[in-house]
Design goal:
This protein has 402 residues and is an alpha/beta fold. The protein has two domains: 143 residues, 3-Layer(aba) Sandwich (Rossmann fold); 191 residues, Dihydrodipicolinate Reductase, domain 2 (2-Layer Sandwich), CATH 3.30.360.10. Strand 11 and strand 12 form a beta hairpin. The protein is globular, with a radius of gyration of 21 Å. It binds nicotinamide-adenine-dinucleotide (NAD). Nicotinamide-adenine-dinucleotide binds next to strand 1.
């Protein structure tokens, strides 16, 4: 790969990119992670936001971040309109609201010439994901979908190993995100106290697919690159008073006889985050667990297990590029998340300077990944409604918006 020198890119650009937030306020789970990740490499400066649905929380978040009160807005539409009119307006927005707001918010910014970083799941259905893909292309915008686990260097190493054929022909792909802490394993007595994740009106009864199974699915998709062609799903609800499914088993088929499984759960009691994958080819297998993220295990068939650790010089391009510290100095979740911001920041700067930005997109999930996941989700819901009947999945034909 002919790489643009990143220091030179940054010095030619000469300043940080101006970002705004929709959601991600002090009342949110994920906002703080974005604030930390965005600042690690210094590509972005926060200038504006509608940080919360609650104006008091939004204002408090803005004060804590030293944001000019004139740039704290009452709605994302107002923010998109006013920021687009400013000479020093934001160039990119983070959307970190609950998923049913992603589509309208992303549309408001894309159509006004502002790039988008959007939390997963991209939207509530495939149709909306396709529309966002079209809008990004029509308006010439960049879009990053924050499937943050793709930022781990050892996930990127697994991708390089699978894509370069080190495992031989791939046969089996399995991943799970099976959480089980008290926050997701119990439901409050009063339905009014339910979190939006457990309300049917937000993402339907199969919301668990977008909330947790999507990460497991996306890891496999990111590493292997091929789309699932058919799915058989069984979803269940274990927790009393719960209105949505809290466990999902998906058995999957890929072209060429490749098979897989995805497990998404809120009721794996005792688990913390519970994200991992196992991939097997003709020549060996790979295993990775997010709670021990610096290590990727490779076991060649008939040979000794190899413990591949982050930070060594013989790792692949993307795994090395995503590492900051020497081996033995664990990096972890925030720095993996920061890799998405760093790559997206490079892509934005390169494009604004008229340089090729595609090379920075290579490792980033975008609208196309959103369509692939929403296609799986819709097929899995249909399969579950039909007693696990095998349901085919349309191929994502549209090109990525690079
Ligand atoms: N990438 C990950 O690992 C990860 C982890 C957690 C959550 N998420 C995703 O991030 C998104 C947010 O999840 P969360 O757990 O932080 O939710 P949350 O409910 O904790 O926070 C949502 C935030 O959005 C704000 N909000 C709601 N409606 C708004 C509106 N119309 N305008 C502006 N702000 C609004 C809320 O006030 C709050 O600040 C979801 O899509 C979720 O799936 C991703």
């Amino acid at each position: 790969m002919s790489e643009i020198d990143i220091d030179e890119l940054r010095s030619r650009f000469g300043r940080r990119l101006r970002i705004g937030f929709v959601g991600g306020g002090r009342d949110s789970v994920i906002g703080e992670t974005h604030l930390a990740a965005m600042r690690v490499d210094g590509f972005f400066e926060l200038y504006a936001g509608v940080f919360s649905i609650d104006p008091t929380v939004s204002a408090a978040t803005a004060r804590a971040e030293f944001i000019d009160a004139n740039r704290v807005y009452g709605s994302f539409n107002e923010m998109a309109e006013k920021e687009a009119q400013r000479e020093d307006g934001i160039e990119v927005v983070l959307i970190a609201t609950p998923p049913h707001i992603h589509f309208e918010a992303a549309k408001a910014f894309l159509t006004r010439g502002i790039d988008v970083i959007c939390e997963k799941p991209i939207a509530v259905n495939r149709e909306q994901a396709v529309q966002l893909d079209d809008l990004a292309r029509q308006h010439g915008r960049l879009f990053c979908l924050t499937h943050c686990y793709t930022g781990y260097p050892m996930v990127r190493e697994a991708r390089a190993m699978v894509r370069s054929g080190q495992l031989g022909k791939i046969r089996i792909l399995e991943a799970e995100l099976a959480a089980g802490d008290p926050g997701v394993s119990f439901e409050p007595e009063n339905p009014a106290d339910r979190h939006w994740r457990f309300r049917e009106n937000i993402m339907g009864k199969g919301a668990i697919l977008g909330e947790v199974a999507s990460h497991a699915h996306h890891l496999l998709h990111y590493i292997y690159g091929e789309e699932i062609s058919a799915v058989s799903a069984e979803m269940s609800t274990f927790v009393p008073r719960r209105a949505v499914y809290d466990n999902a088993y998906l058995t999957t088929r890929y072209a060429g006889g490749v098979r897989g499984r995805i497990w998404g759960s809120y009721i794996a009691a005792g688990n913390d985050h519970g994200l991992c994958f196992r991939i097997y080819g003709e020549l060996g297998g790979l295993k990775w667990h997010q709670e021990d993220p610096e290590i990727l295990w490779f076991k060649p068939i008939g040979g000794k297990a190899q413990r591949i650790a982050r930070g060594y010089q013989d790792l692949s391009f993307w795994a090395s590029r995503g590492s900051r510290f020497r081996p033995g100095h664990p990096e972890g979740y925030a720095l993996a998340f920061a890799n998405l911001y760093a790559d997206f920041g490079c892509a934005m700067m390169a494009r604004q300077l008229g340089l090729s930005h595609e090379q920075f997109y290579d490792a980033l999930p975008n609208t196309r990944d959103g369509i692939v996941t929403m296609s799986l989700i819709e097929a899995a819901v249909a399969s579950n409604d039909n007693d696990g009947h095998w349901t085919s999945i349309p191929k994502t034909s549209s090109a990525s918006n690079t």
